Every structure is written in structure tokens, then in C-alpha cells.
Amino acid sequence: MNRLLNSIQHYIPLSSADEAIIATLVRRHTFTKGEHLLQAGQVCKSVFFIEKGLVRYYTSIEGEEKTSYFNKEGEFVCDYASFLPQKPSLTNIQVLEDATIYSISQANMDLLYQQVEQGERFGRLAISEVFVSAIHQINSLYTDPPEVRYQTFLARFPEIAQRIPQYYIASYVGIKPQSLSRIRKRMAQAH
């Protein structure tokens, strides 16, 4: 729970009363590698927080999986395009390794906004950060060559690159695994 509280304190200060309120609103879960927090077609009913573990977001298009994002320890996980309007998701969120994850339902998130002193500010700042990150990622897919996208991935996720299978990284960068191997070889030769 400390990691969750520290992450919230990245956005807002928390009193001990605020911390006690948050503790009553979240639920702790354990997931095993391969399980899904969310599957396409389901409505995302919670915001998750990763205490321990790693997840990937992906869509399945004509039988091919396209990885769009990763989250690691200390980060919030949610398909906001499903969660906010409570509409079916187009995205899958899969656990890549055994994980300990906290969840907070939409109703309890509303209580957090109301009962925690700067709860609404926390929600606004957190969602703004998600939005800006998504825009950067979309722009990169359209404007950056694959090698730059891979370097951006390494800069964004340096501590987890070794924990993610290469074919998921290649999918995230938007290339085939063989192309990623060539990029990695070129980068190794340059150093």
C-alpha cells in the first residue's frame, strides 16, 4: 500500500486521514502471468495500480496482436476510453508476470475525489499525464522511424526492457521481430 500512497503523493499531499480513506476504497489482488485485468468487449470498471509486476495493453486485429503500451510497478493501469464512459473496451490488458495489483472501482474513485482533500486535483493531474503520454506515443508512430521509437521505448522503460519478450517490444515499436533484431545489432555495433 505504501507504493500506492507514494504514487498519489507524487500528485497531491496526503494527510493521515486521507491515507485511511484511500485504504478503505482500494482492494488488493494477486494475478498470475498471462491473466487479464481487462479483455476487449468488457467494460473497464476499475483503475488499477501495480504494486509488483508488469502489464501490457494490446488489441487483436485479424488474429494479430498489436501491443500499444506497458505499465510497471508504481504505475496506474486503466483503459480510460472504456472506464470514463463505461463502454466496452477495444483493448486487452494482460499481466506479463505474477503481480500484486490494487483496484479501485469507479464508484470508489468518485468517493476518493469527494472525500480526499485534493482528490479531484489528483484525478485531473493523473489523467492529464495519461493523455499527454498517449498523444506523444501516437505522434511518434506517425513521425519517428522504428529505430527512434525503439530508443524512445528504452528511455521510457529502461528497467523493464529485459522483462518483456522481444516480440512484444517489436509490436510496440510497430515492426517485425526480425527488424528489431537488426536495429538492436546496429545499436550494439555503434557502441
UniProtKB/TrEMBL annotation:
Pfam families recorded: cNMP_binding
Residues covered by the Cyclic nucleotide-binding domain: 22-112
Domain of life: Bacteria
Name of the protein in its database record: Putative transcriptional regulator, Crp/Fnr family
